[in-house]
Design brief:
Layout (H helix, E strand, L loop, with lengths): L1 E4 L4 H14 L4 E5 L12 E3 L5 H11 L3 E4 L5 H6 L1 H21 L4 E3 L2 E2 L23 H20 L3 E2 L1 E3 L1 E3 L12 H10 L4 E3 L7 E5 H13 L11 E2 L3 E3 L1 H9 L7 E3 L4 H6 L8 H7 L7 H14 L1
Parallel strand pairs: 1-2, 1-4, 2-3, 4-5, 5-7, 6-8, 8-12, 9-11, 10-14
Antiparallel strand pairs: 11-13
Helix pairs in contact: 4-5, 6-8
The protein binds (3R)-3-hydroxy-L-norvaline.
Length: 310
């Protein structure tokens, strides 16, 4: 059985839904430190603080868990407001997960990394899998250190830990939680409600992004891949599309011609400026057949169509 840690989050809520479709509701236990929303609040939900190793062990024993997806994290923007807690949650949460995987000989572990592991002196275009990595956000530092721990537990203890360096994830089913790429989610909600949008990044801030459907597909593809095909045990570069706030607003204007965007950069501009423009994910494409499906206009169309239905 699978345990999702952080099931109420932006990625966790969608991944829980998709994994339950694939493996059956009763085989995917959702957990979070926050109270669940309606569709998660049932006997297959457990309260869990990932920093509480005893609570984690009890849930693994109670539900006979063999795989864990640990998605609990403080993201980049909130991390800069609360650096010590961001480090504590992101690092100790991962190490607790790696420890129980080793002690209980769990089958597989998933842990998300991010393009935030790259820093201001990383090559910005088509950033390679292996390159200079001097992140200057606590979130990025924790993800880079976390990648080192993942590779250590794989090499030293044989823990089958798998990881992806997600770009900014854009979805309509769940609200994002304190990231620097969140503008690209909020913009659709503003467009659909006929409001104008004030963007906290400059109009030409180019960032690697991905539709949530592609991120879910990549995660499940990676976790289903044969162990021998996984050549990278730190974390795989993963890419789909890159765009600027101006480009995503132009994509929206094809449906809402009167939509207006203004730009008012805040502290998140410096975080965005420290990240690459585009990512080279050829290793993921070579090793386990990664291939994205959504480009910007197709993503916009799908999001607006689904938000209209609500
Ligand atoms: C953040 N959404 O903004 C996350 C992600 C690449 C961005 O790691 O912090």
């Amino acid at each position: 059985k699978i345990l999702i840690i952080g099931a109420c989050g932006q990625l966790g809520s969608e991944l829980t839904f998709e994994l339950r479709k694939l493996f059956g509701h009763e085989n995917v236990i959702a957990s979070d430190i926050n109270a669940p929303k309606m569709d998660l609040a049932d006997e297959y939900f457990e309260h869990l603080d990932v920093l509480n190793k005893e609570e984690l062990n009890n849930i693994i024993d109670k539900h006979n868990i063999s795989e864990i997806y640990n998605l609990a994290a403080i993201l980049s923007a909130i991390g800069e407001k609360n650096p010590k807690f961001a480090w504590k949650l992101n690092m100790e949460g991962l190490i607790n997960t790696l420890d129980v995987a080793k002690e209980k000989n769990l089958t597989k572990i998933y842990w998300p990394s991010s393009i935030a592991v790259f820093g201001p002196d990383t090559p910005r275009k088509n950033t390679p899998q292996d390159t200079i990595m001097n992140p200057n956000t606590v979130y990025g530092i924790s993800k880079l250190a976390g990648e080192r721990w993942c590779e250590y537990y794989f090499q030293k203890y044989g823990v089958d830990i798998r990881s992806l360096r997600y770009p900014g994830l854009i979805g309509y089913k769940s609200l994002p939680g304190g990231g620097t790429t969140d503008y690209a989610v909020d913009i659709y909600y503003k467009a659909i409600s006929g409001k104008n949008f004030e963007c906290f990044l400059n109009k030409d801030t180019y960032l690697p992004m991905m539709y949530m459907a592609d991120a879910i597909k990549a995660t499940i593809d990676l976790m289903q891949a044969d162990k021998e095909d996984i050549q990278i045990r730190s974390s795989y570069n993963l890419a789909a599309i890159s765009f600027t706030p101006e480009e995503i607003s132009n994509s929206i204007k094809k449906t809402f011609p009167d939509f207006e965007i203004t730009y008012k950069p805040d502290f998140r501009q410096a975080i965005a400026d420290s990240w690459p423009d585009s990512i080279d994910d050829s290793k993921a494409r070579e090793d386990w057949g990664w291939n994205h499906e959504y480009d910007l206009d197709r993503m916009t169309e799908d999001i607006l169509l689904n938000l209209k239905r609500r």
